Amino acid sequence: MKRCGFTVFEIVEEVLRNFLNENDEKKREEFQKLINEPALLNNGKELADRKQVVAWLKEPSRFSSQKAYSEFKVYVRGQQRQIWRRRIRYVAAVLILPFLVGGIYYWHVINSEKEDQNSETQLIHPIAFKASIELDDGKRVYLGAEEGKITLSDQTEIIRDQKQVVYAASDSLDVHKMIYHDLCVPRGGEYALVLSDSTKIWINADSKLRYPVQFNGKEREVFLLEGEAYFEVTKNSEKPFLVRTSRGTVKVLGTEFNVRNYKDEGCVVTTLVNGSVQFGSNQNPESNTVLRPGYQIIAGSVIEDWIVQKVNLKEYVGWKEGLYVFNNMTLEELMRTVERNYDVTVFFASEECKFLRFSGDLRKYDDVRNFLRYIEIGGDVRFVIKERVITIYKK
After folding, report:
1. In whole angstroms, what is the distance from residue 176 CA to residue 322 CA?
2. Can you give the residue ranges of the FecR protein domain (predicted)?
């Protein structure tokens, strides 16, 4: 049997070019010689089959495409030719495949970066720290750019920086008058709020929270009017903390939990990280559900359909740490998150694409295009981005 005339890197490169349809007539002839090499152990034709490569990508048990991508990046930096300088005699497809997968992803990223240098309209900027406070008199204070301490017309003192706003506890305010502010975080933004009792709240994109400037009475009550927020509640056994939502109320003494209350999702999802919370229905205040850490309750419009389940916390609270984790999620659900967090509009040119399911993670401070290309590699979809509109086609 003759010795193989190609290095592993050259094989990956040629298969990659074929996968991306970048070969001219001469290159196609060379590629045909390559796939007939005995050293490929009869796997060459499978490597030439685009559908077969995509099928491999969809098999999570076969390998980790993210790991392959990382390994391939290390491989192509600087010394790849030295690493694979020796010619090898037998090269099975199982050896080439991880590098091939990483190569496809890497190739997309490199080419897109070159395109972006010539097209400002293609940029989709990562999430920014931005928000606004709507005061009780209707005026607005914008957050995210300026820093420092300011005193509002009602004598409320707040300290703001680029990422959070802190309300100072005060004895000078009228304890008999409840003054409410609304913190509004737009699409493509996020921000944090520290209340006068030192409770800290991380507020996700496209969300609105109403809260008192200072807590009076026997309870501490806030209203998640819409959106998602993560609460780290300061413990006070004499004053329970209440989060009012469209479906019910979360009651706690001191704990960490996440509440998701987006109108277009038709339910309220409460996920407990530690401590204990009680969720009660707006329709039936006597119907209460107590959660344990690691569990969540999904409250729909009908109490009988409520679901309590144990979950992977990263999927529901990872956003606070800059990571969105998806597990067997439909593309429609996934792109809803992308719309809110990157302030883009998504259009499905093919309705059937909505029901495709994906698993993976999105680092919220990265350019979303890298994530979309990762989905393209493993799924039967294609994304076309123009300005801030993402159109989804079936391949």
Report:
1. 40
2. 187-277
- For 361-385, the pLDDT digits (tens) are 888 877 888 888 888 887 789 999 8
According to DSSP, the β-strands at 207-212 and 220-232 are: antiparallel
Q: Measured between alpha carbons, how far is 226 from 19 in angstroms, rounded to an integer?
A: 44
Angle, helices 65-76/368-378, rounded to nearest 10 degrees: 110
Phi, psi of 125 (to 5 degrees): -70, 150
Last residue of a domain, one of 69, 93, 117: 117
| Residues ≥6 apart with Cβ < 8 Å to 164 | 191, 192, 193, 194, 200
- Structure tokens that stand for 207 in this block: 């969300």
Distance of alpha carbon 103 from alpha carbon 117, whole angstroms:
21
Residue 58, pLDDT above cutoff 70: no
191 and 164 within one domain: yes
Q: Residue 261: which domain range?
A: 128-316
Cα–Cα distance for residue pair 23/31, rounded to 1 Å: 9
Q: How far, CA to CA in Å, does 148 sit from each of 157, 195, 229?
A: 11, 17, 24
